[in-house]
Design brief:
Four Helix Bundle (Hemerythrin (Met), subunit A); mainly alpha
Length: 265
């Protein structure tokens, strides 16, 4: 058996260990194997969720059919918050353990998090027009969600402005970690302040306040958003690995394997 770095990345460890996959060299092939399951799950869950949302869920007695935008708006808002917390987590791990892969994961998640925040803001505006009579109000939850979108943009802009990847990672980590305080503000804003935004319809401690079919459609779309997010983050982190590790032996051999038609590396 060859002792090349590429071969070493393909050989599983004697026992499963998260530390084994803590380096780009060993995580790269694992990420490649997880892509198709994520894409298939995202597609199936999206189809099932949209079908439930538009053809199974009943019309709301108060808002009519305009409420159906929640099947996109709510999962997008959830994911925008979850991804930012995941970014802050990976940045903290990177700072504590000085792991390159942690910072790469955070960088890979940022564009998708910004996309979900953008979708949440726009779908919320489209929902607000028939509900509140206006596209935008400086509501506590809307404003804090807008700040979250700006934090995503600031993180990506700061990293792009610094040429040295190590310095860029550490500078971006400060924004991600400090900005994480905004996430609980978004979540609890409807409880802390008197806002137009309605409270949560789904809670871990109380029974849902919506019909079962509505809840089913929302959860299906949320799972679809999870699968899509993981899939696209894995694609992006693999690209970041190749870009940052392009001078290493394992990337050179990976490039040679790709040119020879071995795309399963």
């Amino acid at each position: 058996m060859s002792d090349s770095p590429l071969s070493a990345a393909r050989v599983p460890s004697a026992g499963f260990s998260l530390f084994h996959y803590a380096s780009p060299q060993t995580f790269f092939p694992l990420a490649g194997k997880l892509l198709w399951p994520c894409w298939i799950a995202a597609l199936l869950l999206t189809v099932a969720g949209l079908y439930t949302a538009f053809f199974v869920a009943p019309t709301d007695a108060t808002q009519g059919d305009s409420y159906r935008i929640i099947f996109i708006h709510v999962p997008a808002a959830w994911m925008s918050m979850v991804i930012y917390m995941a970014m802050a987590f990976w940045c903290a791990v990177g700072l504590v353990f000085n792991t390159r892969l942690s910072f790469m994961m955070s960088s890979a998640l940022a564009p998708t998090g910004a996309l979900w925040a953008f979708i949440a803001l726009w779908t919320g505006a489209l929902w607000g027009k028939p509900t509140w009579g206006t596209y935008w109000v400086w509501d506590a939850r809307l404003t804090s969600e807008l700040i979250l979108f700006f934090l995503y943009c600031g993180y990506m802009a700061l990293q792009a402005a610094i040429d040295d990847p190590r310095r860029a990672d550490r500078a971006g980590a400060l924004i991600a970690i400090v900005g994480a305080i905004n996430v609980p503000i978004i979540y609890f804003s409807v409880k802390w302040w008197n806002t137009l935004h309605q409270g949560s319809s789904v809670s871990m401690t109380q029974s849902p306040t919506m019909a079962t079919t509505m809840l089913t459609g929302m959860l299906l779309m949320a799972l679809a958003a999870w699968a899509y997010t993981i899939g696209v983050a894995l694609v992006r982190v693999r690209a970041i690995m190749i870009e940052r590790e392009r001078h290493t032996d394992w990337v050179r051999q990976l490039s040679q394997a790709g040119s020879n038609g071995d795309m399963n590396a």
